[in-house]
């Protein structure tokens, strides 16, 4: 099973080395480094993976390791820079594109400033942005960590259902219409403690017609590679899911749990 959400030193917030991932597996490897424009977590800079250096690195690794090496990117959607994001993705050849919503133009949603926000209002605002992202983007394969904007809050399943189910129903319907898989993000689930939110949301995605799931560790350090995959697989199986999908050239192929 491929870990379909990994970061390396091509991301602004990671120093992870490809070799340290490759030493742990003989299976295919895909990394999904950050494409984050006007990034408030990096002084407003445009953080774009150096694609030429990335491909050159993969070519060198191909000569040293037996693994199939796939190309991926995590797009942090930001509406004022939507055209620039789309142009970057269109100009480069990826196997896998993750779609995320990380910031509001002023602060990343993990910033301490959001700890003072009215939680219900934040839930509505965040999912409005996520819906806009899903509706606007035609180039992504996977909707990543649906709970990212709420990670720093102890949001209960009851609160998520009461405050966000109508919005998430819209988001998942739009995601299914765009062919997006639903990511089980094990960092969200087992480090941030949001597994119960995923347990609640999986049937909502299924009710919208969704059948495609991925699992990703969101590792920024190599020790978290494939972290808690057994638990995430068991959760999917509890909801009647027998396969996840893995991406090559944006084409999903089934992989048994």
Fold and architecture overview:
The protein is of the alpha/beta class and 257 residues long. The chain contains 8 helices and 9 strands. The strands form 2 sheets. The chain has a 7-stranded mixed sheet with strand order 2-1-3-4-5-6-7. Helix 3 links the parallel strand 3 and strand 4. Helix 4 (119-136) packs parallel to helix 5 and helix 5 packs across helix 7 (195-207). The termini are close together. The model has no long low-confidence stretch (mean pLDDT 97).
Number of helices: 8
Let me know the average pLDDT.
97
Spatial strand arrangement across the major sheet = 2-1-3-4-5-6-7
- The backbone outline, from C-alpha atoms, is globular
Radius of gyration over all CA atoms, rounded = 17 Å
**First-residue to last-residue Cα separation:** 8 Å
User: From N to C, what is the helix and strand string?
Assistant: HEEHEHEHEHEHHEHEE
Assign a percent range to the helix content: 25-40%
- What percentage of the residues does DSSP assign to strands (E)? 15-25%
Note poorly predicted spans.
none
- Class inferred from helices and paired strands: alpha/beta
How many β-strand runs?
Answer: 9
Summed up, what is this model?
With 257 residues, this protein is of the alpha/beta class. The protein has helices spanning 18-22, 51-62, 82-90, 119-136, 157-178, 186-191, 195-207, 229-238, and strands at residues 29-39, 45-47, 69-76, 96-100, 142-143, 181-185, 213-216, 243-248, 251-256.
